[in-house]
Specification:
The chain has helices at about 90-95, 210-220, 265-270, 460-465, and strands at about 25-30, 35-45, 65-70, 80-85, 110-115, 125, 135-140, 140, 160-170, 180-185, 195-205, 225-240, 245-260, 275-280, 280-295, 300-310, 320-325, 325-345, 345-365, 385-390, 395, 400-420, 420-440, 445-450, 470-475, 480-500, 500-515, 540-555, 560-565. It is mainly beta. Strand 20 (about 385-390) and strand 21 form a beta hairpin. It is elongated and about 105 Å long. The mean pLDDT is about 85.
């Protein structure tokens, strides 16, 4: 599809190996003077898949070529990790309601879903049982937030070629995680110009009212709530120079005009805040990628992607008023570059670089606070109100948070083969400085009442007439946090083909998190002395993770494999 060409010379005993081939469909050709050439056509490689192709060459009698059709193995038999690939065909053909391709990981065993996380990727993989216990990589670099470890950025569905889900026994090259590993490869252009334009539409005219909407319609005369969702976008790619340089751009936009329904069941007290209210949201993702085959031994790619999200109110509806909870605004960017170089017939070096700024802002819903997530100005507190919690209603919003992060990553991996061994080692340095200012519940506080009583936020006398609160809470002024999260990792691993049917995988990994526990924290920033704390003594220097596993092709036919680790 792209004209990528790689050549090598076999060992004396006939072994040969092509390392680091991008996912795609390949033809294999074997040539030797005095022998008939052999062509093996159309072998499809996916992420991490190892395909063994034995070539039988016969003495040349005439100028001839033997052509064989290659078949991709159903079962991978050389790796001890338990994993599976979600292919480009699945991503293109299977419906995904939220346009987040990683949701298709739920097709695989060993995965589950955390439905408590609105607007976020909620597929969990591996034995960790939690989204923050897994590792997420895109094009060989990390795609995680330093604050919580969750996926930092999403990408247009049309810009993802495929992804691999590792649910257990990850090799040493991946982060020390108790969960799984998700490895995504973005899509590049090919020698043919191609693309797609799409729109998916949902509208209230196609929807039935739910129980609460029907109740409001019957008792208050409220019309069917507004709902209209447009999911639209395009993907286009092709050659810049045939067989040498290619490009691809992809955009994916989801805009939702919807309403939330507030129904407390106590209209005698809260009629003024009940009904349906607009709650618009949007999500926009974009990706551009350029690939260059510098030579038959060197490849380069550059990729830039961004994501913008807005949610007017994340937790409104039910017995939470339209003015409660938080408005969310996010900006995410990532610039990634990679260089691959083949060294001789045995070596492969892969270099990756990433710069990924991220910003996050919460504020009261429906307010006119500037949506610039870099705004740390105190003026954003002026729109906060007190929060009133009644048994049947919550009203008010005092949430304000600004977070900025600048993820910088450099990593290098080197693989070399020798006889029956395939060694790989590498190192990475990640800097994820994070500035965070969370100021909630500081100006007006939160009042909790044991009984329902008349409440109308549009009537100033309502607040003065409230009686018998059982609890009042308020926070100290916020402390501006500036953390210097840094992470260095290194590893070495070996894949040893002990027998034709038995592969042994061993490795060891070391992770050093420095400046990640506020070791440089100045305690003078706090409004009062904090006892029992000495930040300079913090740290963790013994994160050594050995890995070992086997893969046994039981019947030596590539159909049944036993893994252990």
């Amino acid at each position: 599809e792209t004209g990528v060409l790689r050549s090598t010379v076999s060992e004396a005993d006939g072994r040969y190996r092509f390392a680091g081939l991008p996912p795609g469909t390949y033809d294999l050709r074997a040539e030797l003077a005095g022998f008939s050439a052999v062509d093996i056509k159309a072998t499809t490689l996916t992420i991490g898949l190892q395909v063994k192709r034995d070539v039988r060459m016969t003495l040349e009698t005439l100028q001839e070529t033997v052509t064989v059709v290659g078949q991709t193995p159903v079962v991978e038999t050389t790796q001890s990790e338990v994993s599976q690939v979600v292919t480009q065909q699945q991503i293109e053909m299977l419906p995904v309601n939220n346009r987040q391709a990683i949701t298709l990981a739920l097709l695989l065993p060993g995965t589950s879903q955390d439905g408590t996380r609105p607007r976020k990727i909620n597929a969990t993989v591996g034995s960790g049982g939690s989204w923050y216990a897994s590792a997420y990589l895109v094009d060989g670099v990390t795609n995680q937030e330093t604050l919580a470890g969750e996926p930092r950025q999403d990408f247009p569905q049309g810009g993802i070629q495929e992804f691999k889900v590792n649910v257990s026994q990850a090799p040493a090259e991946y982060g020390g995680t108790s969960g799984g590993v998700v490895t995504i490869v973005t899509k590049g252009g090919t020698n043919a110009f191609s693309g797609e334009v799409f729109e998916f539409l949902r509208d209230k005219s196609l929807n039935a009212m739910n129980k609460f909407e029907q109740l409001n319609h019957d008792t208050l005369g409220t019309p069917k709530p507004e709902f209209r969702r447009n999911q639209y976008g395009a993907t286009f790619g092709g050659p810049v120079v045939m067989n040498r340089a290619h490009f691809l751009v992809a955009a994916d936009l989801t805009e939702t005009k919807q309403a939330i329904t507030v129904n407390t069941g106590k209209p005698q007290f809260y009629r003024s805040v009940e009904g349906t209210f607009p709650n618009p949201s949007y999500r926009r993702t974009f990706l551009s990628r350029y690939d260059q085959q510098i030579s038959s031994r060197q490849n380069l790619f550059v990729r830039w992607a961004w994501e913008w999200d807005h949610t007017n109110c994340e937790t409104c509806g039910g017995n939470s008023a339209a003015f409660s909870g938080s408005r969310i605004d996010q900006r995410r960017h990532a610039l990634v570059a990679g260089h691959t170089m083949v060294l001789g017939n045995r070596g492969l070096n892969e270099f990756r670089f990433q710069y990924a700024p991220f910003s996050f802002l919460t504020s009261p819903p429906g307010t006119d606070v500037p949506t610039d997530p870099t705004n740390f100005d105190a003026s954003r507190f002026t729109v906060q109100t007190a929060v009133y919690n009644f048994p049947s209603l919550t009203w008010g919003s005092d949430n304000s948070r600004v977070q900025q992060e600048w993820w910088k990553e450099v990593r290098d991996d080197y693989a070399v083969t020798a006889a029956k061994h395939s060694f790989k080692f590498g190192a990475a340095d990640v800097r994820g400085p994070n500035k965070d200012d969370s100021a909630s519940n500081i100006t007006h506080g939160t009042w909790t009442f044991a009984t329902d009583q008349a409440f109308n936020p549009n009537d100033a006398s309502t607040f003065a007439n409230l009686r018998n609160p059982i609890q009042f809470t308020a926070n100290y002024p916020p402390v501006y946090r500036d953390t210097k999260n840094s992470w260095f990792s290194t590893y070495v691993q070996d894949e040893w083909r002990a027998l034709s049917s038995l592969t042994v995988n061993v490795g060891v990994r070391y992770d050093l998190f420095y400046k990640s526990w506020n070791q440089d924290l100045d305690l003078k920033v706090f409004p009062r002395p904090i006892p029992f704390i000495n930040p300079s003594t913090r740290g963790d220097h013994n994160n050594i993770g050995p890995r070992a596993g086997i893969a046994w092709d039981v019947l030596q036919n590539g159909k049944t494999v036993i893994r252990a680790g």
